[in-house]
Amino acid sequence: MSIKIFYFSGTGNSYVVAKDIAKKVKADLISIPKVINMDRMQVDADSIGIVFPSYLAPLSGIPLIVERFVKKIANIESIHIFAVCTCGGYECVNALPSLNKLKQIIRSCGGKLSAEYSTRLPMNNLDYDHIPIPINRDQQVIINKSKTKIDDICYRIIKKRSTKYKIAKILFNLLMTPLYKMMRQSVINALKEKAKEPMDTKLTYFELIPLTDKSIIVDKKCNGCGTCVKVCPVNNIKIVDNKPQLQHKCEMCFACDEWCPYNAIHHWSRSKGVKYHHPEVKISDMFYVK
Questions:
Q1: Which of 21, 45, 180, 267 could cross-link to 257 by cystine, CB 3.0-4.6 Å?
Q2: Residue 240 pairs with which residues in a beta bridge?
Q3: Model-level pTM greater than 0.85?
């Protein structure tokens, strides 16, 4: 059985998960940003895995680039598909809705998501204070538990096992749906603010996300080195007059903020001084992502 693992990552969590899975199941590892500009894509594999981080679960949970990628797979109806969602909070709250959304997208394209997996890794903005239920914040403990989880995921991928606790997860998703609907408008309003759009704008979630780079700050420590250009997975940054110029097609991945060697770029969703990338990832790995 031939397997290809496609992934999207900004600070390394999903990259490490995808790399570890690809090694253990003997799959090809492919960065989604490397293939996203293709008009249509005929995937030459019996099975594909999609590894991605959960973003804004109350609204979608799927990075925009991952949704675009899925919609470009020409032979989606004939491929066995599984997905692994990484998240920084509780998997049942963040990963489950995200995987459910991915399932809906794949189904709308004529395919089927045959298995759904998730694993928790440290939150890349380290904002645990908004979680009402106490959660472990020890990065090494979280990473070690994830490695054990990945071993189990790989076993299930090789054996083509279905999702664990499927009925319980379906019931939990049903429980969370009305709660997320209640949260939706407040999240949309926050995005409008960060996109610097009026509150009465008709722009949708999909149109607002790329514009939120209007609230990313580049301070005077920037020397125009261009590292942000190299790590941005969607070519959202150009150097103009020796300064980064954002192109309003942001994916909110934090790569520009995290990997700036001079700490000159500040994403609005990160508190001042917050830095996190997976400890097994080097900046050169993020160059490869592009």
A1: 267
A2: 243
A3: yes
